[in-house]
């Protein structure tokens, strides 16, 4: 399989997440991921993009960038936001903040589950600050091995 690098940029608004989710779902299906794994990929992408819109690029004039890489082993998705530009506002991606989110996550609270979903459903994940003052979230989904496919 040839390598590919797809780059997308969307306005920082929830409205634009669904078309990206559909695009990545169709791409994952065409790459041979199972229906269940495609749903996992779409859910992870939805969570990452939602976090980028709600916590990262909070100004609607900001954008969220996506880099989708395909190689012979995996589908890799990188979502980049620009961060909050308001003075004194705490970044959502500090080790302290991530620990706080993990500690406060509960079934009765609808917030704070996105990072747990990303960790649970992706093969590899990483989050780090970027040069724009925002956050880079990278997830990797390895292609199924022939022995992993059940008929």
Annotation keywords:
151 residues, alpha+beta, Heat Shock Protein 90, five-stranded antiparallel beta sheet, 36% helix, 25% strand
Structure description:
With 151 residues, this protein is of the alpha+beta class. It has a single domain (4-146), classed as Heat Shock Protein 90 (2-Layer Sandwich). The chain is 36% helix and 25% strand. The chain has helices spanning 17-30, 35-56, 95-104, 114-121, and strands at residues 4-11, 63-70, 74-80, 124-129, 135-142. Strands 1-2-3-5-4 form a 5-stranded antiparallel β-sheet, with helices on one face. Helix 1 packs antiparallel against helix 2 (35-56) and helix 2 packs antiparallel against helix 4 (114-121). The chain is globular and about 45 Å long.
Shape: globular
Query: Over the alpha carbons, how many angstroms does the gyration radius reach?
Result: 16 Å
Extract low-pLDDT stretches: none
Helix proportion range: 25-40%
**Strands, total number:** 5
Strand portion, in percent? 15-25%
> Can you give the mean pLDDT?
82
Give the termini separation: 23 Å
**CATH architectural arrangement:** 2-Layer Sandwich
Assembly context of the chains: single chain
CATH class: Alpha Beta
Classified in CATH, the superfamily is Histidine kinase-like ATPase, C-terminal domain
């Amino acid at each position: 399989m040839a390598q590919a690098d797809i780059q997308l940029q969307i306005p920082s608004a929830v409205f634009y997440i669904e078309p990206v989710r559909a695009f990545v779902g169709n791409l994952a299906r065409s790459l041979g991921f199972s229906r269940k794994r495609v749903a996992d990929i779409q859910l992870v992408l939805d969570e990452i993009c939602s976090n980028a819109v709600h916590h990262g690029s909070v100004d609607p004039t900001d954008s969220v960038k996506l880099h989708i890489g395909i190689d012979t082993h995996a589908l890799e998705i990188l979502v980049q936001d620009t961060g909050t530009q308001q003075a004194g506002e705490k970044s959502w991606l500090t080790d302290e903040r991530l620990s706080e989110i993990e500690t406060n996550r509960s079934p009765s609270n609808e917030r704070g589950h996105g990072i747990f979903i990303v960790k649970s459903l992706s093969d590899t994940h990483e989050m780090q600050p970027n040069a724009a003052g925002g956050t880079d979230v990278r997830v990797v989904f390895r292609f199924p091995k022939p022995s992993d496919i059940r008929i």
